[in-house]
Design brief:
The structure holds two protein chains of two kinds. Chain A is mainly β. Chain A has no helices and eleven strands. In chain A, the strands form two sheets. In chain A, strands 2, 4, 5, 9, 10 and 11 form a six-stranded mixed β-sheet that branches. Chain A starts with a strand and ends with a strand. Chain B is 0% helix and 50% strand. The chains are: A mainly beta, B mainly beta. At the A-B interface, strand 5 and strand 10 of A face strand 5, strand 9 and strand 10 of B.
Chain lengths: 112, 118
């Protein structure tokens, strides 16, 4: 069973702090990784995609990928109350397939 | 760009009736669309992969006769929940990949459909 695991949280951080969200995956053949944000009752929206080992930065967001250790993380700098949401990690199942596996999501609360 | 529109946003139906949900890619062609179901406080569970002009591929445990998927064009896929029951009440979400882009690129999500069966 190929799995993507996340801590369900809630992860509470004060406003302005760095929020760190982690995700591990079991399929070593996975090649593309995505972070989505989902507000309650809404559909997921893409925040970041990452394909290579290392860091990828986009504004306040940094995705980190370590394929050897099979984890991917998302850092949110200068967290804002509007960042409060559930963050879903999605992993593409491997070469040639279009399917994602989603983690259960981490609920983030940014305290004003 | 890359907008996926899902309709309706919410629907209430009586037990035993059928409900159709539409998923449209508004500004791009989508060779492949995906249908997910999400129960409260749970993650998205892939139900089926819908390919234009061919039969959908269902995930293990998803009843293909109950969840009918049609992908008649490059911009429209439909999910019909047949003989709906209260346990089918859930949040149904579609997503689509842009035709011509790689298999490992991101998918874009519709806004979801909240189905309540009474």
């Amino acid at each position: 069973q190929k799995e993507v695991e996340q801590n369900s949280g809630p992860l509470s951080v004060p406003e302005g702090a760095i929020a760190s969200l982690n995700c591990t995956y079991s399929d070593r053949g996975s090649q593309s990784f995505f972070w989505y944000r989902q507000y309650s009752g809404k559909s997921p929206e893409l925040i970041m995609s990452i394909y290579s080992n290392g860091d990828k930065e986009d504004g306040r967001f940094t995705a980190q990928l370590n394929k050897a250790s099979q984890y991917v993380s998302l850092l949110i700098r200068d967290s804002q109350p509007s960042d409060s949401a559930t963050y879903l990690c999605a992993v593409n199942q491997g070469s040639g397939t279009y399917k994602y596996i989603f983690g259960t999501g981490t609920r983030l609360k940014v305290l004003a | 760009g890359a907008v996926v529109s899902q309709h309706p946003s919410w629907v209430i139906c009586k037990s035993g009736t059928s409900v159709k949900i539409e998923c449209r890619s508004l500004d791009f062609q989508a060779t492949t669309m995906f249908w997910y179901r999400q129960f409260p406080k749970q993650s998205l569970m892939l139900m089926a992969t819908s390919n234009e002009g061919s039969k959908a591929t269902y995930e293990q445990g998803v009843e293909k006769d109950k969840f009918l998927i049609n992908h008649a064009s490059l911009t429209l896929s439909t999910l019909t929940v047949t003989s709906a029951h209260p346990e089918d009440s859930s949040f149904y979400i579609c997503s689509a990949r842009v035709k011509g882009q790689g298999w490992n690129t991101e998918a874009f999500f519709g806004q979801g459909t909240r189905l309540t069966v009474v």
